Every structure is written in structure tokens, then in C-alpha cells.
Amino acid sequence: MKSIYFSSLLVLLFISVKAQDSQTIDNTTEEQQVSNWLGETNVPGIAILKIENGNVAKTIVKGIDGNGNKITNSTLFDVASLTKTITTLTALKLVENGNLDLDEPLYKYWIDPDVQEDSRHQKLTSRIVLSHRSGFKNWRYMYEDKKLSFDFEPGEKVQYSGEGFEYLRNALEHKFDTPLEKLSDSLLFKPIGMENSAFVWNKKMESFDFAGSHDKEGKAYEYQKTYEANAADNLLTTLSDFGKLSAALLNNSYLKNTLFEEMGQPHSEVREGIDFGLGWIVFQNLPNEEYALFNAGSDQGVNSLVVLLPKSKTGLVVMTNGDNGRGLAMKAIKVFLNEPGGEILRRF
Fold first, then answer.
1. How far is 90 from 39, CA to CA, in rounded Å?
2. In the chain, what is the greatest distance between 2 CA atoms, to the nearest angstrom?
């Protein structure tokens, strides 16, 4: 593509990696290293899960949540943009079931009022949205008039966009006359056994220990609970649940091989060595003949990521409850994913 738009996500991750360039990982145990990270960064808590050969091989949970309780596998985290993973997989399962065409125009089901007079809305498809080529900024509040509009022709360039995913949510909800959270519950959460995940706060979520969100000094933010589903942000989940999801993907027990492979095919180049697939960042040509599917989430006081290495059925999930957690998540890539992890960090 002739013009590349860098996502705020990649810029933030790049800064985190560069900040660590002069640091070396010590030879203490992985658990001790993780404990040391918390003390060095004022991040209250972290939860890490490693998958090897398609099975959960290791979990490390350290620190405390927003109420001073110990972090566990079942502590509830807000994982920010990892929400896009759920929306992507829900859409792809609809495709697999023959209920959705990735290239069908979305205007048949939804036209945002802000762009109804702009004929470019007719070019929006699920594929274009999932590969971050909608033409929208990340959020409409970033426009001077706070109204959604196209920065370029859909499909022409790449630009990270939560609004694109929200556009897709509206289209799916109108097409199937069902809220996204119910679609995901029936198509994804229940089949995989993600019993403790939700787009919004509800009575069940209120019963969990919640990791909360904390600033760079480790002080708690006043967390704003959400009660309306967002296709791009604010998913509530646990380390255990997201581990189940990651293992299901690596074992091809959720999506058919052909659709999983299409999800990981580069659809739009971000920069050399980094592409967007469908809903995932893709790193091709890694050591050991690997490639990686990568997603990260970063909001005020919370940082998380997931990395899948499909060839070796290796995976990593990291969740933190602090502004400084992004750097810890990137350190975890280096420690737990060895050579492929090092190459991923180099490309940032």
C-alpha cells in the first residue's frame, strides 16, 4: 500500500520495547522475575498463561487486585482491545456456519447516520473492517466535529479503528436481530467454556474479584463500569477463560483450518514485517518457521496481550492492572516465547 497509517497501539508498544532495550533478563526463575517486575514498575498485579503443544503448561499470577485481594486465575480483568478478538471470532464463526459473507456490503444492514450521505459507506464489508481498512479514525471523538467520517476510501489503506468494529457490531446486530453479546455467548463463550467472560457488567460479573486499574504510581483509578457492549473495547474476562480460547484456536477446535488460515493471512501491511490479518496483527517468517497472531489491549490503568504461534501450538496470555503493565507484557514475550518472541519485539 502506498500510504501507511500506524495504529496508536503499535506506537505505544514500540515505545515500551525501546524503553527496555538496555535491560537484560536475569537468570532467576520465571516466577521470581515476574515478582521482581511488579516491584520495579508499581504494577499491582499480573496474570500470565503459557500454552505449549496446545495445552496450558504454566500459569503465573502475582500481586493484588483493586481491593487488595491476591490475583488468581479467576480474577476478572478488563482487557481493553482484546475485545476485538472476540468480535472477530464471532463474525468468523458466522461465516463458518454459512450465515455471513465476509465480502457482503454492510450497508444492507446498517448505515451510520454520520456517513449516510457519503457513498463510500457502500464499500464497507466485514473483511475490510476486520483488517482495519474501514477509513475511520480509532474513535469518532477524534474528529473535530465529533462525527464519524472517512479519512480515505474503504479498503485503500490501513488505519487502526475501534469505530470500524463498532460499525460491524451494528451491522451484525441488525442482520441477526440479536445483540453482539448474545451472539458471542452462543457462538463462542458457551462452546469454548468461557463461563466468566462478558462484554458488560452484570450480576455475575459483580460477584468476581476485579483487578481494577492503576496509574504509574500504583494508585487506583476510579474505574468506570460499562453496561453497553462495545465491539472493540472493555471485555471482562479471566486468565483461565482466555487461556481456553487460545488453546481452542491453536488446536483448531473452534474454527476450521481454512478459516483459521484466512484469519492469519496478511490483508493489509502496517509496516515491513507487520501486517493485519482478520482481527489480528500477523508476524510472518519468524524463527523456527513460525508465524504469530498478536493482539494487545491498552486503556487507562490496564494492559493485556495475547500471542499465538500456530505452527508449534504455543501461546501466551498476559493481563495486568497498571499503566506500566504494557512494558511487563512485552518483557513476558521475551522471557516466555524465546526466539520467536525476540523477533516480534525486534520488529516493533
1. 38
2. 61
Q: Point out which residues pair with 295 in neighbouring strands.
A: 306
Q: How confident is the model at residue 348 (pLDDT cuts 50, 70, 90)?
A: confident
Question: Which residues, other chains included, contact 287 with Cβ-Cβ below 8 Å and sequence gap of 6+?
Answer: 339, 340, 342, 343
Q: Cα–Cα distance between 8 and 161 in angstroms, integer?
A: 10
pLDDT beyond 60 at 26: no
> Please, what is the Cα angle at 221 between 345 and 224, to 5 degrees?
100
What 3-state class would DSSP assign to 291?
A: strand
- In degrees and rounded to multiples of 5, residue 259 shows phi and psi of -75, -35
* Whether the Cβ atoms of residue 71 and residue 47 lie closer than 8 Å to each other: yes
272: its cell numbers = 515491513
User: Tens of pLDDT along 55-72?
Assistant: 999 999 999 999 999 999
Q: Which of 298, 300, 308, 299 is nearest to 329 (CA)?
A: 298
Pairing of strands 45-52, 314-320: antiparallel
Residue 32 has pLDDT above 90, yes or no: yes
Produce one character per residue of 270-304: b if its CB has 16 or more CB atoms within 10 Å, e if not.
Answer: beebbbbbbbbbbbeebeeebbbbbbbbbbebbbb
Determine the Cα–Cα distance for residues 233 and 297; give it in Å rounded to an integer.
8
Our CA angle for 343, 5, 110, nearest 5°, is 115
Q: What is the pLDDT of residues 254-313, one digit of tens each?
A: 999 999 999 999 999 999 999 999 999 999 999 999 999 999 999 999 999 999 999 999
Q: Which domains does the chain have, with CATH numbers?
A: 8-82+179-347 (3.40.710.10)
